[in-house]
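User: Sequence in, structure out. Go.
Assistant: Echoing your sequence, followed by the structure tokens.
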Amino acid sequence: MGGAGVSGLRSGLRDGSGQGLARASRPALALAASLALNGCALFAPPPPPQPPPPAPPPERVDVSVYRRVATERAELLERENERLRADLRAAEETLLEVESGMRGTQRRAEAVSMLAEARIQVDRAAKRAPWRASTAAEAREKLDEADSQLAADHLGSAIFFVSRATRIAAGLDAEADLVARSPDARRVKPHRANLRAEPSTESPVLGVLSAQLPVFVEGNEGEWALVRTVSGQVGWLRADLLATR
């Protein structure tokens, strides 16, 4: 306590008045209040710790699925590129034959034989890959064109269209082989099925899958299956819409 407070207290005690005592006690009360407030702040319990941030939701699609998709898509593109290169080579050979005037019974017999064998190959590939009906129809159109060219005695052109149909059939066979050797392959049962971004009927539709289309099951969540298609799409499909091979 300061000197003014002590002298004021003594003065109050001498004159016996309460006013002097009150004046003397004001600094002391203020000091006590300040110490009390500071003491509460110093000894107050620390605030409770903040809860940790919520963990991010787990990834529903493993990154290895996309790696397999990328690998298969690269193989598919390579097969398509090879088919286009073969078409180009066949076109060049046809031009050479036309320019050199190659004709004759032997060449015609070869074209007739190639056409017959190609029809058998296309029919077999279409049965093995029924989900590619439009592609098989394209191959049959090439064979019909080859037949027309053969009837017009355009042997080089006939052989060119036969070769194109044969390469389309080879692509169908390669896709059918991929499905046949995969133990997790399934087929879409209904006429059409929605492939969704998440395992929910409220999720956006990524694509519509046709009947008999093969898919590869990569995982399951409840009544949903995570699938990838032979063309490289990845999404969720109701598990009850899938049939075993």
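User: And one key feature?
Assistant: The chain has a mean pLDDT of 76.
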